[in-house]
Specification:
The chain is α+β, with helices and mostly antiparallel strands and 92 residues long. It contains two helices and three strands, in the order βαββα. Helix 1 crosses helix 2.
């Protein structure tokens, strides 16, 4: 079983690609939370586990991360794109 990790920095519109953003700027949202990401992962149809005490290697403050379980049928970039779209929809 494949486990993908999604850090909030991957979806953060305030970051550049070199700072860790992994989705297109028009899909990114400002300051995403692990709760929003986990909710979006569940909307996409996968199980999500939140680890709140983790720190992205390029950051100093811990924002946590989301582990996605069972995403064997999707590439990481497809998964990130779908999750980013749902996080944007949750905020509307």
């Amino acid at each position: 079983m494949v486990e993908n990790v999604i850090w909030p920095a991957y979806l953060d519109s305030a970051r550049s690609r070199s700072e860790g953003r992994r989705v297109a700027e028009d899909l990114a949202v400002p300051d995403p939370t692990v709760d929003e990401i986990a909710s979006a992962v569940q909307q996409v149809g996968y199980d999500a586990v939140i680890e709140r005490d983790r720190t992205y290697p390029r950051e100093y403050e811990p924002r946590g991360r989301v582990i996605v379980k069972g995403a064997d049928d999707a590439s990481k970039s497809d998964l990130l794109g779908a999750v980013a779209a749902y996080v944007a929809a949750i905020r509307e």
